[in-house]
Amino acid sequence: xxxxxxxxxxxxxxxxxxxxxxxxxxxxxxxxxxxxxxxxxxxxxxxxxxxxxxxxxxxxxxxxxxxxxxxxxxxxxxxxxxxxxxxxxxxxxxxxxxxxxxxxxxxxxxxxxxxxxxxxxxxxxxxxxxxxxxxxxxxxxxxxxxxxxxxxxxxxxxxxxxxxxxxxxxxxxxxxxxxxxxxxxxxxxxxxxxxxxxxxxxxxxxxxxxxxxxxxxxxxxxxxxxxxxxxxxxxxxxxxxxxxxxxxxxxxxxxxxxxxxxxxxxxxxxxxxxxxxxxxxxxxxxxxxxxxxxxxxxxxxxxxxxxxxxxxxxxxxxxxxxxxxxxxxxxxxxxxxxxxxxxxxxxxxxxxxxxxxxxxxxxxxxxxxxxxxxxxxxxxxxxxxxxxxxxxxxxxxxxxxxxxxxxxxxxxxxxxxxxxxxxxxxxxxxxxxxxxxxxxxxxxxxxxxxxxxx
Length: 454
Fold this sequence. Notes:
Blueprint (H helix, E strand, L loop, with lengths): L1 H50 L6 E5 L25 E7 L4 E6 L7 E4 L1 H13 L4 H6 L45 H10 L8 E4 L5 E4 L7 H17 L4 E6 L8 H4 L2 H7 L3 H21 L4 E6 L16 E5 L4 H9 L3 H4 L2 H12 L8 E3 L4 H19 L23 H16 L22
């Protein structure tokens, strides 16, 4: 009996010792976790600082919005980059499978952590599992407790992720077969059952510098349009000397739709004939050339032979800056065309119809509308826009000293303010001089005189 009581006493004592030492072990474990977290954050911060000096790896356009301040779990707390739909991001490098390092293309923005497609898909699945209305998440306004914003309703019922790890996502088909809604409920169910739904990726890969494309006042290939666009090309060449690449594009790049180039079935149909096959290959090569030019982080201006309307490039991966050179009065345009001789007058109706189609476009289809009466005012307008874009894509020297790749050639700054003023006047005078034969008739005015751009 005494032996049994002694055993119980010993067991009770051991249990007490065991219970007494358990909190200390938990405390040491918590300290280890906190030390590990701090070390991980310190390493992440060091990598973030190093990434500021690295060149841009690629650029993306966002198809959803993300609030980095809500439930911030980025490697460095407070360093997540927030963005809205159709914002543009410069990606510097991959941090891990869930995060990239980059910045939003906006003047004064800092380099931070950007969620990868894998991370965004994880957030979507977490919100779906918590019982939140995913139709609001992907189709309407974002709820206050969500850090993901609107995306196409096409992905509401989709399963799995459209991304391939944390590699740059390939632009997908964001049009053609999404949201047609022409079938009844029963047919729609059958169609959904037998055919996989199209998925809009969170990001579209775009050129590192958005190419500038001019449209208007009418059709390319006719004297009035070619003459006015050439005047702007000459101005940009001199104003942004050492910062701009102006290149002619003869291929029909409107054929470079994401749905065609990334869909083997559609591409096979287009390439059944030898002529079409060579055409698609030429277009693909031209798109790759434009992407390569944009990697220099210089302004890229395209002189496109076949682009006359913004809708031609809406479904491509170029994400261009569309500049609309507009003549507000049809009578002025008509008089200007007639002044070019009989060869242009014979095609008057075609040019007037093309100008009318451009005038009917909503303003949000264009990035810049140059509707000034004088050419020099239009030049100042586009120069101001591109200067702002240049500053947004080229952070200060302290933040990103290697943002511009060394192959670019920059014009040295003038030695004095007087020289700078004289150079600006010289460039302005060369660029905005009215081309011969007609532009001076746009609006009755005194003889043009060059004035400095401020």
